[in-house]
């Protein structure tokens, strides 16, 4: 596939990022599949291209740059650090066959723990600047506010972990929330299984990779979950109210501060949002008109755990997001073997900018 205009534009973007202090880096197109499967589970196979190398094992065509850049930084980098890159990424498009599975991506990543709110503002303001010639609409959110709300719920750690695991799958998250609140009954097959004195008595021969001990442990976990009290209706209502917050930043901040009266655990995350607004304003962003959605980023940004943002093209609703980004502190810890550093970054698709054709 020819990417001439997109590649030229990517070079211009990375030059802008270099001027902002970023070090240019490159990453192999073939990445070890093990790391990405560990991060995303088997779901990644539906979105990426996987192949088998006789000597190196399972490999994956690079689905993005962020993971290998984080791995490189956690292995070799000094702090603070800024990186930029560009090149092809590969994503299967089974739900959108009209979209190309191969495209150019240009990005900017910041590893700096001195002032995370200021780093968030730096990345967003830089993207706003380099994209200012295009008819794009920004959107922002903060996954950290929702995760703080989930962690404050009066339920078991196991149920909190299940909700946190599915924050990026809104339908599954809602199904779990409704089940924990008693709004929907458990599956009939599960109810029948747990009624049996010993469900293994009626089991046939073991098939698959799970041992009998693992199966019994899972049954015990299901019984513990079934015995747990329901999640209080008022807590579900608070989560629902939080997910409906969709305002410009100042009004969203006001609503979130009101919510934090009943959900005190929201306080630190909401104040981080407030500091980010101040940092954005200091960089010339009109936060009075900047949209904020508490649920933004939950379907496409699975490794982000704080600030998230995107730029879309209202005149071309057929196009995917032109640029996306956010904070991914937890990812650095997972890939750093316990070591971590606050990190934030984003990517731009030059091919979509080419399709838009320039200034609005």
TrEMBL record:
Superkingdom: Bacteria
For this record, the Gene Ontology CC terms, alphabetical, are:
cytoplasm
Question: Matching Pfam families, A to Z?
Answer: tRNA-synt_His (PF13393)
What biological-process GO terms show up in the record? histidyl-tRNA aminoacylation
Give start and end of each Class II Histidinyl-tRNA synthetase (HisRS)-like catalytic core domain.
Answer: 7-190, 219-347
Gene Ontology molecular-function annotations: glycosyltransferase activity; histidine-tRNA ligase activity
Q: Which UniProt keywords apply?
A: Glycosyltransferase, Transferase
Q: Which SUPFAM superfamilies match?
A: Class II aaRS and biotin synthetases
In this chain, L-histidine is annotated as bound at: 64-66, 91, 105, 109, 298, 303-304
Q: What is this protein called?
A: ATP phosphoribosyltransferase
